[in-house]
């Protein structure tokens, strides 16, 4: 079903417009968004065969319950619940937390697609970490899968859309209140993230500053420690050590490559345009998972190892399927 990935550039432009971005930022953001849209439509025109990944369903089942077990283990170690006492969430093990996301999101979507309704407990359980992003990603991924299944059956109604949107808003706002924050803080967060992008666009230079190191740090920081991507953004802004700052979807790419970030935008769109045609349940789970991360990444950026791995797996399936179709079309191996 074509259309959902187009929400990413639309939501991005809406986000920076509502955040009162500077005219130069609006112009750069518009070029970046157009590059994503062009990539999406280019991807629509590329045929590939979806054979999925050779993974037995029992391993996906165990991946899901492993993610649930990791959440329980971390709470036992803390002897507390971060959602009730948000200040202790910094004591969570970042590697185990990342593994929760990597295993939990696609496995819950896969099981949901296969009719296992218990998969819906993932966003509720991961909410105990007291981080909004994984909760929103889980709801959006599951909601997108539910929406498109109804759309394919011709049963989509306004009520279904309202339930999906309502679920996102209720859990997102509920977590905001439980963390002791006000609703107005969300507006402040939009403005502050947009202001960060303004500074990046004005100060990073036309060819960027980190030249790929910022996005690479999304891998390095998980494996070997050191600055995280959002930590490098804070360093760029001369903010004290230990603080992390979200740079929006464009910010990290622009801080790395400047105006050449539009190439990454095009490739991102190309990926979505191709994988949107997925039919295999495993590939569909990767599609909905990365779609959710793209939508949430409008504010947070796509800068974390678990997210890179999901995009990498999705790209692998698409590229292998494209190469197989080309070989078959040329008569090689037949």
Structure notes:
The chain crosses the membrane at residues 31-47, 59-76, 96-113, 120-146, 158-178, 254-272, 292-319. It comes from Thermococcus siculi. Keywords: Membrane, Transmembrane, Transmembrane helix. This is Oligosaccharide repeat unit polymerase. It holds the Pfam family O_anti_polymase. This protein has 334 residues and is an all-alpha fold. The protein has one domain (4-330). Helix content is 70%, strand content 0%. The protein has 14 helices and no strands. The protein has helices at residues 7-18, 23-44, 57-78, 94-113, 121-126, 132-152, 158-178, 184-203, 213-224, 229-236, 248-257, 261-275, 281-300, 305-330. Helix 4 (94-113) packs across helix 13 and helix 6 packs across helix 13 (281-300). The chain is globular, with a radius of gyration of 20 Å. The mean pLDDT is 90.
Characterize this entry briefly:
The protein has 334 residues and is mostly helical. It has helices at 7-18, 23-44, 57-78, 94-113, 121-126, 132-152, 158-178, 184-203, 213-224, 229-236, 248-257, 261-275, 281-300, 305-330. The chain has one domain (4-330).
Low-confidence blocks of residues: none
User: Helix content range of the residues, please?
Assistant: over 70%
H/I helix tally: 14
- What is the CA-based Rg, rounded? 20 Å
* Beta content: under 5%
SSE ordering: HHHHHHHHHHHHHH
Domain count, please report it.
1
How many beta-strand runs? Answer: 0
Shape: globular
Task: State the distance separating the first and last CA atoms.
Answer: 31 Å
The chain-level structural class is: mainly alpha
Mean of residue pLDDT?
A: 90
Biggest sheet statistics? none
């Amino acid at each position: 079903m074509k259309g959902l990935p187009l929400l990413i550039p639309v939501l991005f432009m809406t986000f920076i417009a509502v955040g009162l971005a500077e005219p130069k930022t609006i112009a750069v953001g518009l070029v970046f968004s157009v590059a994503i849209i062009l990539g999406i439509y280019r991807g629509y025109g590329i045929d590939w065969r979806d054979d999925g990944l050779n993974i037995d369903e029992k391993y996906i089942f165990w991946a899901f319950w492993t993610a649930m077990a990791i959440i329980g283990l971390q709470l036992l170690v803390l002897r507390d619940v971060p959602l009730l006492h948000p200040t202790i969430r910094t004591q969570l093990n970042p590697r185990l937390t990342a593994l929760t996301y990597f295993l939990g999101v696609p496995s819950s979507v896969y099981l949901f697609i296969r009719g296992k309704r218990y998969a819906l407990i993932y966003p509720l359980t991961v909410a105990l970490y007291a981080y909004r992003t994984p909760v929103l990603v889980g709801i959006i991924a599951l909601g997108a899968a539910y929406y498109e299944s109804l759309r394919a059956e011709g049963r989509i109604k306004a009520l279904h859309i309202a339930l999906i949107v309502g679920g996102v808003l209720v859990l997102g706002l509920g977590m905001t209140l439980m963390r002791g924050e006000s609703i107005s803080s969300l507006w402040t967060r939009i403005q502050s993230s947009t202001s960060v992008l303004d500074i990046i666009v004005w100060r990073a230079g036309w060819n960027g500053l980190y030249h790929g190191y910022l996005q690479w740090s999304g891998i390095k920081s998980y494996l070997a420690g050191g600055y995280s991507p959002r930590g490098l953004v804070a360093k760029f802004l001369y903010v004290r050590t230990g603080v992390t700052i979200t740079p929006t979807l464009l910010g990290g790419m622009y801080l790395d490559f400047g105006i050449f970030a539009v190439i990454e935008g095009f490739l991102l769109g190309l990926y979505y345009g191709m994988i949107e045609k997925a039919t295999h349940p495993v590939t569909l789970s990767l599609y909905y998972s990365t779609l959710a991360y793209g939508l949430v990444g409008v504010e947070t950026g796509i800068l974390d190892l678990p997210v890179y791995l999901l995009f990498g797996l999705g790209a692998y399936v698409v590229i292998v399927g494209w190469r197989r179709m080309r070989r078959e079309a040329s008569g090689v191996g037949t």
